Amino acid sequence: QKEVEQDPGPLSVPEGAIVSLNCTYSNSAFQYFMWYRQYSRKGPELLMYTYSSGNKEDGRFTAQVDKSSKYISLFIRDSQPSDSATYLCAMSGTGGFKTIFGAGTRLFVKA
Amino acid sequence: GAGVSQTPSNKVTEKGKYVELRCDPISGHTALYWYRQSLGQGPEFLIYFQGTGAADDSGLPNDRFFAVRPEGSVSTLKIQRTERGDSAVYLCASRDAAGGRRTGELFFGEGSRLTVL
Predict the structure, then answer these.
(1) The pLDDT of residue A96
(2) If I label A15, which of A103, B9, B48, B117 is the partner at 20 to 30 A Cα–Cα?
(3) pLDDT tier at A23 (50, 70, 90 boundaries)?
């Protein structure tokens, strides 16, 4: 079993839809939870960053962490074609921040 | 530039050859990470450096893979006797870990795409 599980999709939605992406994990030592966005042939870029459990909102994006269930989510409101990319969940423990990534979910937002 | 720079961007080699991939991190970032990303997969951790030393090399798949960071800045990932299964994008990332900063954000380069024929 992988430490981080993420459905690779693809996920196709119409413009303006609410998108829900999620990951599960098995390592209870993870304390930092992140979502990275990766466009084709580019490196991942940090989108959202959360420490421990709770919610965090940034514009159209909301990240949720439920440590009791070992489950994290990313919601995208009013999705746009420019949101089309691969979304990677990532997590790390304390210390050196060895970051473990999920497989990534490919998202397509149709105009 | 101000970002993480990786060279070469593309490398095609033959099975059995030796390859070096270079990473130039963001100036001042003390932590440096190497990941490998196969098609349709997320980045797979290989090794990370804090300063000049390898703090965690548990992700290196076997002894054909080796990485160095002799002066605590530029890093080189070295692959001996390449195999077709080594074909992937090799990503480098750096992090600002100086002064006890407690942030886990990794800044990635665009990767080196390795193809082993």
Answers:
(1) 60
(2) A103
(3) very high
